[in-house]
Each structure stands twice: as C-alpha cells, then as structure tokens.
Amino acid sequence: DQQVKQNSPSLSVQEGRISILNCDYTNSMFDYFLWYKKYPAEGPTFLISISSIKDKNEDGRFTVFLNKSAKHLSLHIVPSQPGDSAVYFCAASAGRGSTLGRLYFGRGTQLTVWP
Amino acid sequence: EAGVVQSPRYKIIEKKQPVAFWCNPISGHNTLYWYLQNLGQGPELLIRYENEEAVDDSQLPKDRFSAERLKGVDSTLKIQPAELGDSAVYLCASSLRQGVQETQYFGPGTRLLVL
Q: How close A35 gets to chain B, by Cα (Å)?
C-alpha cells in the first residue's frame, strides 16, 4: 500500500508563474519530509526538506508547506523556470521504529515549464 | 566534493545470468542504501547499511539478491540468477549517519535490462 501519494502524474506551467506540487501521506509516524528532483538518466537530487515540527521551509525559489492534520505537503516553485522541468518526488521517513531511516517515495510528478 | 558513484551505468544481460552493481558513497557517510526503481514508480528500499552492518534488509529478496559492504565503505549488490522482472534502475544513496532527519544523497543509478 502506497504510504506516500502524488496524485498528479504531470503538471504544466508557464515560465514565471507558480508551480504547486502536492503530496499526501498516510503514516502518522512520518516526521521528516523531502522533495527530490530527477532529470532523465540521473539519480534523484535533493531539493528541500521539512521537519514535522515546522509548517514551512523556504530556500530561494522553493518553499515546502506541511499540514500535519491533513497529512499533506506541497512544494511551491516561484517563479518557475524552464530548467525546473523534471520529475519531482515527495519522500517521507519516520524517526522511530524498525523502519528508521527508510525513505518512502511517491510515484512522482512530471513538471513541464514552458516559455 | 564527489557525490555517490555507481557503476556500471547501464547493463544488459540475458535472464538467468548473474549481475553485480557497485557503489562508492560520499566520503565520510556511514550509512548506505540500495533502492530499486521501476518505471513510473518511486524508489523502494532494498537494504540499508550502517557502516558494514545491514540494519534493514527486510525488503531484499534474499533468494536471488545479495549485498555486501566490506570495510564499511564501498558496496556491491548482486543478483543471481536475474529474471525478466528485475529490469529496473538500481540506485545507491548515502547519508552521514543513520538517524532521524538525515538527508539521503543519490547516485546516478544503474539501469538494468534483462532479456
């Protein structure tokens, strides 16, 4: 059963506008969340993360929002650039238990930013 | 600083043949992970090492898959014999240490095709 879900397989946004990528999770033990970006034929590249003690983390054009009560997080990219076109993976991990350190990934969202 | 190195980048073999993948983690990273990524899916953990000890191998199909991390640095993942369904990307990742809220850094992956 998929514990991390990205329900939108693709998103298309015009350059300069905001991209919003969404992610939902089911496991209440998750307390650390990450976003990775992946270009074709490359491994996932770490983008930004957020701890469950926060509800927002910002790094340049990238902001991640966490809503623990809704078990939902989102990645905002403002302004979007053509170089942001890639597959974005949401991932989560639990800080306790036998699966300590294991990342659970969503299926990814293909973001296309057009000029 | 060099990232996670994996080789080979691509491998084509016939079913029932053995195959091995190699990973060199980021210098100083004690924790090493092997992930499997099928087409259209997110990565899934196969095994996690803390130094030379396999601390989470519950997802590793032990009838045909094996892994080792001698001396707690480089690691090798082996499949013997390979099956058609093993065609996927095998990703290696590393982090500084096992624990809460550790960011994992991924290598480029090895793309395996079993004919």
A: 10
Name the pairing type of β-strands A45-51 and A56-59: unpaired
Q: Which residue of B has its CA nearest to A41?
A: B108
Q: What is the rounded distance in angstroms from the CA atom of residue A10 to the CA atom of residue B90?
A: 24
Percentage helix, strand, coil for chain A under 3-state DSSP, each rounded to 5: 5, 55, 45
* Assigned token pair, A47: 């983008």
Which tokens sit at B82?
Answer: 């390979």
In angstroms, the separation between the Cα of residue A28 and the nearest Cα of chain B is: 15
Interchain contact B42–A (C-beta under 8 A): yes
Residue B102: CB atoms within 10 A of its CB come to 21
Q: What is the pLDDT of residues B43-93, one digit of tens each?
A: 999 999 989 999 889 899 999 999 999 888 999 999 999 999 999 999 999
What pairing do the DSSP bridges indicate for beta strands A10-14 and A109-114?
A: parallel
